[in-house]
């Protein structure tokens, strides 16, 4: 996204940093790279460091964490949203 911005294009799509989200949802983890997150959460990462496999695993990871967010108490979720602003 940063590259496109410097080339004169501005993306107006929301972005989520899966590492930051994982750090909030799973503070007990020692590391937050894609391989570790997938291993800890039972998400398949068949061919690490290949674009398609990493993208698919990241998408699954995001959906997994999204579900975890929906399971949080409403007040806590609202507090997290306020921190994001």
TrEMBL record:
Matching SUPFAM superfamilies, A to Z?
Answer: Ribonuclease H-like
Q: Which Pfam families match?
A: RNase_T
Q: Name one GO molecular function term.
A: helicase activity
Q: Report the residue ranges that make up the Exonuclease domain in this protein.
A: 9-62
Where, by residue number, does the polypeptide cross the bilayer?
none
InterPro entries according to UniProt? Ribonucl_H (IPR013520), RNaseH-like_sf (IPR012337), RNaseH_sf (IPR036397)
Which residue spans adopt a coiled-coil conformation according to this UniProt entry?
Answer: none
Q: Keywords on this record?
A: ATP-binding, Exonuclease, Helicase, Hydrolase, Nuclease, Nucleotide-binding
Q: What is the name of this protein?
A: Bifunctional DnaQ family exonuclease/ATP-dependent helicase
Q: What is the scientific name of the source organism?
A: Streptococcus pneumoniae
């Amino acid at each position: 996204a940063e590259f496109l911005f410097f080339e004169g294009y501005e993306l107006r799509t929301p972005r989520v940093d899966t590492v930051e989200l994982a750090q909030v949802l799973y503070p007990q983890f020692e590391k937050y790279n894609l391989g570790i997150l997938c291993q800890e959460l039972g998400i398949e990462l068949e061919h690490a460091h290949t674009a398609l496999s990493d993208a698919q695993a990241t998408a699954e990871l995001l959906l997994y964490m999204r579900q975890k967010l929906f399971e949080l108490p409403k007040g806590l979720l609202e507090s997290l949203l306020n921190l994001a602003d």
